[in-house]
Amino acid sequence: MSSKSDAERARRQRIAAGLEEPVREANALARKLGLDPFPVNYWIVDFDEMNELIAYGGFQHRYPHWRWGMQYDRQQKQGQFLGGKAFEIVNNDNPSHAFLQESNEMADQKAVITHVEAHADFFKNNEWFNLFSENPDAAAMLERHAETIREYMNDPDIDREDVEAWIDHVLCLEDNIDQHQPFTTAEEWTADPPDRADVEERLGKLKLSEEVRREVFDDEWFEAQTAEDGTITFPADPEKDVLAFLRAHGMQYDEEAEKAVEFEEWQRDVLEILRKEAYYFAPQKMTKVMNEGWAAYWESLMMTDERFAGDDEFLSYADHMARVLGSPGLNPYKLGMELWEYIENYTNRREVIERLLRVDGVTWRNFHETVDLDEVLDGLEPDPAIAGVTPETLDRLDPADPRVDAEALAAAKAGEIDVAAYPWKVLTYEGLCERHYSLVRRQHRGFLKRVSKNELERTARYLFEVDRYETVAEAVADVDRSRGWDRMREIRESHNDITFLDEFLTQEFVDENDYFTYEYTHTTRDYRVTSVDYEDVKKKLMLRFTNFGKPTVTVLDANYENRNELLLAHHYNGVMLDIRQAQQTLERVFELWGRPVNLKTIVKEVDDHDIEVARRRDREPTPEERGKLVRFDGERFEVEDLPWEEVEDIAATDVDYDTKPEEWLA
């Protein structure tokens, strides 16, 4: 066993040694391209270890729970029977940790390394990740959590099955946090019921007249809002962090005493641990499309355009990328990468037309008749000396040129840099922007020509009468080729998937990339394409990502009908809950509240007669929306209809996707 372990260790060391140069150069290239990643520690692991890490969410230590075994088994079977291959896993930490599977070919390892460097840049610079912590030490945190829960499970005074069941209850609600707010510990988070003095103070700030306060907010009103224990119904506003609320105000039901009693200390501790982990992982769920698309974009540029994949590795890499981008279903790698490319092209096009509209004699009305866009694209082609850097062409580079790294050029001429393998080393960021300018790539050359008159008019409307050009060539020479990448980094800093899709998924993007919506139709009893309109596509996609694609549920009242019952609200966005699943969730919530729990929601109902009539008329039936209240008292369920006025507050006429913090809207 020892000799096998030593042999295995030696083999991994050899693999690691062979990857030292790709790791070093990938990081250097990423920084040249304008990225600023966390430092990354790379680890070599085998197939089983990779599957275990994926099951654990990218970390080596997690708390004991059956979910990890289930995820491990699923991952292993996917590789064995479905042909799935785990190329990499990287976690959000400083330093980040990335794991490379030892059986991967060198082309795969290089692809993973370039992909990881872009992820590490995203982790470091996206503001949503900083809501949890600006300097995460996630591996240490999760290891501490695992040890704490393990100690509770091994405590002779605590039943291990009770701990496991408690974890199950909490995990059922792990996405019911307020992911748009900075993480606060349980001690910092407060939602205590206000007393009468608090309400009086709030009313004073409203500057109501004495007559209104006397007539409306009288003693009778306070009594109606006050429970038997003297507290006023709370929370004052719907509370999205359901886990925090339950930790602060929840109880457990004692079957022997037949009443709710305070949590045990271990229960509060475990609940807070799982809540903290939910906040840690939330940014990764909120930015899946952006983050994976970002990594795929820069990986592709480095591996292909900068030939990080060697000639003997290129076909293997092409197969790797095809598998990543070709996976079925809603593919965040493909959608994200296409959106980033669209943003780059759109920004570069905007820069070009802004210059061209300043040319004497060119207006938005005569633009297409006056400007030869093929000639413009030819003028935007990179300087051959920049585009085709080789050891033989170094003398064509001017050390004083801002596109050239003078120090690296001198080193290259002295034979200290392998320019054949790493031509980018002798260029600056400005040089690389020109070298990889998107609008002149073969696959994107039609993008500039597709500019519409509407876009030309909008652009012209906000142009100032400055920096006029006498000729088109003069305007083209003044184009800033770095605008696309600069804009991409700005977006990477502040957006999440919802705001990303909302702002940048346009009709042009939908048409160019063949996106559409489909629905189940009652008349044909199958799925049909229903729209190629970008608003419909956008809405459909954003429903998949709002609140991680899970129903949005808040705490409405912790003293519902003056009975200390919990009232939750499902904020209906046109997609109704599965009532059976909702009931199963309420069973879990009851274990965290200790008293009856209620859920207010809206359902769609269509009867068979309406379906048959609609089918004869070749159209879809119009469902009727009804309010429902589901109640669970610990033993049985009750479902009752609610009048519409009692669910109006949770019936959205449209989904509110404006989740960007206010300070970023300036």
From TrEMBL:
InterPro entries: Spore_V_R, SpoVR-like_C, SpoVR_N
SpoVR protein-like N-terminal domain mapped to chain residues: 19-350, 482-548
Domain annotation SpoVR-like C-terminal: ranges: 551-602
A Pfam family matched in the record: SpoVR
Protein name per UniProt: SpoVR family protein
